Amino acid sequence: MKIGIGNDHSAVEMKNEIMEYLTEKGYEVVNYGTDSSESCDYPIYGEKVANAVAAKEVDLGIAICGTGVGISLAANKVKGIRCVVCSEPYSAKMSRLHNNANMLAFGARVIGPELAKLIVDTWLETEFEGGRHQRRVDMIMDIEAK
Fold this sequence. Notes:
It is a single chain. The chain is α/β, with parallel strands linked by helices. It has helices at residues 12-24, 42-54, 69-75, 89-97, 113-125, 132-145; strands at residues 2-7, 28-31, 60-65, 83-85, 103-107. It has a single domain, classed as Sugar-phosphate isomerase, RpiB/LacA/LacB (Ribose 5-phosphate Isomerase B, Chain: A, 3-Layer(aba) Sandwich), CATH 3.40.1400. The chain is 47% helix and 16% strand. The longest helix is centred in the C-terminal third of the chain and has 14 residues, at 132-145. The model has no long low-confidence stretch (mean pLDDT 97).
């Protein structure tokens, strides 16, 4: 599986740790984020990784900024993206199981690297349940199409 990852200046260290962790687990990881701690604009990197997911250059995406909120808002503006901010594993699981989220966001200033790894593992290991949930995902996507 190929995972895209994007980040702003506040999350360079977290991004590097997550990239290394995913690579060790056998995932192919593509870096769409900044590698500089110099202040930058998170919407640029949220859009970059979201575009890669939408274009199917990568299977899923991860976006990290200070809180995860701003970068997720930018990612969610890209057609076809369902990006969820998670600070604990239960929401990560449910976002895949019921919402078929194709991007995960979290905050480098909100959670530590070990919790981030647990959230990422839970999110990546959970499959979309489909069934009645597909109808609801379709409804979400219909809103986007209006």
